Amino acid sequence: MLTGKQKRFLRSKAHHLNPIFQVGKGGVNDNMIKQISEALEARELIKISILQNCEEDKDSVANLLVNGTKAELVQIIGNIIVLYKESRENKQLQLP
């Protein structure tokens, strides 16, 4: 689990990122979870945008993604979800 201090640090790092995935009408599927897991391994910290036509609410989308990828939810702000997962091969971020 992330501490408050670590979440603040990750939020500041995520501020400049652009969302690299979008969850739309189809919702969250296995293929998306696999791609997001790979992106987390490569980048550690990613943003995912939830489109207006997504039929699920952002909290359930966030839960599906967190459970599917085993990542940490850093924050949900508006329709953007920020996820963090420490990379095994490609460690870039040093948490406080």
UniProtKB/TrEMBL annotation:
This is RNA-binding protein. Keywords: RNA-binding. GO terms for molecular function: RNA binding. It comes from Heyndrickxia oleronia. Residues 1-96 form the CRM domain. The keyword Phosphoprotein does not apply. It comes from the Bacteria.
